[in-house]
Amino acid sequence: MTIEELSTRSGVTTRNIRAYQSRALLPAPVARLGERAAFYTTDHLTRLRLINRLQTRGFSLAGISDLVSAWNEGKSIEQVLGIESAIANAESEEQAEAVVMSEAELRAGMPADADQDEVLKKLVAVGFAVPHPKGYRIRQPKLFELGQNAAAAGIPFDELLEEHARLQDDMHRIALRFVELFTNYVVTPFLETGMPAERLSEIVEQMTRLRQLAIEATTPLIRQALADEIEAAAQSRMPEPKEKGSDNFSAALSPTSRKVV
């Protein structure tokens, strides 16, 4: 990442990023062989998020600096960064799935009768499209494609965007429940025992398994819920059966009149 991209993803200004580097809170960017420019990695993103978390919990920059120095002198910084890195790696998977579209390409995918300026604002507002130097980064391109298909089928684009926002809220509530389980029964005991370094890899692996469990559990459950709701909606909207003998076609389909061929 460039410093601008690191700033966007971390929420830390470029000025503060440079200030953290000057105070040895953040490592220098990584230089690539044969290239003049240096770049930032997910390790830098992890460190910035750690600094933000510590500041939120009341640590001063001087205190964070002392803590980082102590860890770097032999008290494993991985005890904290290991878990933070697992989070960053999970987010990196999402980054790998994202695609960058020019503004023209993005507008071309919108319904012809839509107010494209307004739609673009809403896509950014709900976090679906993120401004990028080359246009916009689409975080879930497959969802964008499915949304286009749904709009072509007749569902108003605004309704789809509203549903996307509601779905995000629902997913966060589900994720929070899983995270609370992990925090209460895995992380808290780990912290209470002094964060033993030998257990760190186990904790990180359990976090990865929890994430996979949440994904694997959600998919079949939403599939079953959709099947149940579709069936219920279809039954509630079917016309009432006519009196016996008034509909030869319905009578022909009844179990008592069906012939086995």
Structure report:
This protein has 261 residues and is mostly helical. The chain has two domains: 3-97, Multidrug-efflux Transporter Regulator, Chain: A, Domain 2 (Orthogonal Bundle); 99-237, no CATH class. Helix content is 66%, strand content 6%. The chain has eleven helices and five strands, in the order ααββαααβααββαααα. The protein has helices at residues 3-10, 14-22, 42-56, 61-72, 78-97, 103-108, 116-125, 141-152, 157-192, 200-237, 248-253, and strands spanning 30-31, 38-39, 99-101, 129-132, 135-138. It has a three-stranded antiparallel β-sheet. A hairpin with a 6-residue loop joins strand 1 and strand 2 (38-39). Helix 3 packs across helix 5 (78-97). The longest helix is centred in the last third of the chain and has 38 residues, at 200-237. The chain is flat and about 80 Å long. The N and C termini lie far apart (68 Å). The relative contact order is 0.06.
Output the keywords.
two-stranded antiparallel sheet; 261 residues; disordered C terminus; Multidrug-efflux Transporter Regulator, Chain: A, Domain 2; 11 helices; 66% helix
- Count the beta strands: 5
Structural class: mainly alpha
Helical content (DSSP H or I, runs of 4+): 55-70%
Average of per-residue pLDDT values: 77
Terminal-residue CA separation: 68 Å
Unreliable stretches, pLDDT < 50, 5 or more residues? 75-81, 253-261
Approximate strand percentage: 5-15%
- Count of helical segments? 11
Describe the biggest sheet? Answer: 3 strands, antiparallel
What is the H/E order?
Answer: HHEEHHHEHHEEHHHH
- Strand arrangement in the largest pleated sheet: 3-5-4
Rounded to the nearest angstrom, the radius of gyration is 26 Å
